[in-house]
Amino acid sequence: MVRRLLLTIGIVAVAVLAATLLGPSLRGVAHPLVPQGPDGTYQCSTCHGPGAVPSAIPAGMVAPAPPADHAAYAADTCVSCHATVVAQDPTTPSYSRCATCHAQKGKVTTLPDGETLQVSVDVDAFRSSVHGDLSCTVCHPKQATIPHAPLSAADLRAFKQDMGNVCQSCHAEATASYEQSFHGMAARLGVSRAATCTDCHTAHAVKAPAQWTLEERATQCATCHTGATASFASGWMGHTEPSLGWFPMVFFAGKFFVALTALTLGVGIVHVELDLLRWSTNKIRGRKEENE
User: Fold this and answer.
1) Which residues, in sequence order, are CB contacts of 51 under 8 Å at separation 6+?
2) I need a surface site. Which of 1, 41, 92, 274 has the fewest CB within 10 A?
3) What's the Cα-to-Cα distance from 166 to each of 24, 158, 162, 188, rounded to whole Å?
């Protein structure tokens, strides 16, 4: 009797130990956080069901369709029974539902002209950026519903310009100074490839200017200016106008060319007026000579 009891206890102990050690691998990959709609309802049908979006399913995971006897249940009530499904939250609540899909590496979407847009987000870099405490929909209000509505931008450049307009909705002072910068003036003159906000500051790993190293600036500059080095990046003036204390050489060069332009135009105008005066004087003299 004692021997059987000890054997039973031993089997139970081995089973418990096996479940503890092997449980995670037997259960498979933890379920990612479930996407939610603007009203907070869970959108399980994004991955499960006949209307599932294949691109939303994380790589390496299988999203089975719900059993036939579940047809009577509303799509947003799944977690009433499957409560553990939403237990895994790898990010902060403000953008955790977006990270379910966008934290996946190599995720892209195709724009109308055939160009691909990288939609993967480095969650750690975003969380440590100056925008890390913002919800994704603050900058992407049109993407609040899941599945997302198609992007309206025709190409990658148009998309970046649209996002630049979103930046301007909060950063009015920076926008005003940007319009006076080299990039801003090029944009106002209609240069389609002129750098927008995200070209220089990146889309998600946004840093305050004081936090950028020259090497980081050079890397970002090189996305448009091939071969840009730290020396090239050191000449970047940002949005600040040159002054006696900020890039004085550029300040004096600008003043010199303004004065040179004014002098050239002034001398040219005086020269033209003197030439007209000479021409009119000769005309008058010629007429007098003819009358005599």
Assistant:
1) 45
2) 1
3) 43, 13, 7, 17
- Residue pair 164/195 in contact (Cβ under 8 Å)? The answer is no
Which of these ranges, 212-216, 234-238, 281-285, has the smallest mean pLDDT?
Answer: 234-238
CA distance 34 to 136: 16
Residue whose entry in the numeric block shows the structure tokens 């630049």: 164
Integer CA distances (angstroms), 13 to 16, 115, 181, in order: 5, 58, 72
Question: Is 24 in contact with 133 (CB distance < 8 Å)?
Answer: no
Q: Evaluate if residue 23 carries a pLDDT over 50.
A: no
User: In sequence order, what are the beta bridge partners of 170?
Assistant: none
Q: What is the pLDDT of residues 146-180, one digit of tens each?
A: 677 788 888 888 888 888 888 888 888 888 888 87
* Residue 110 φ/ψ, nearest 5 degrees: -105, 130
Record the pTM. 0.54
pLDDT-wise least confident of 26-35, 156-165, 196-205, 242-251: 26-35
Residue 141: cis peptide before it, omega within 30 degrees of 0 = no
- Neighbour tally for 44: CB within 10 Å: 22
Residue 14 structure tokens: 């081995």
* Residue that is written with structure tokens 């956080």 in the block: 33
Q: What is the distance in angstroms between the CA of the first residue and the CA of the last residue of the chain?
A: 154
- CA dist list (Å): 160 to 37, 118, 194: 26, 12, 11
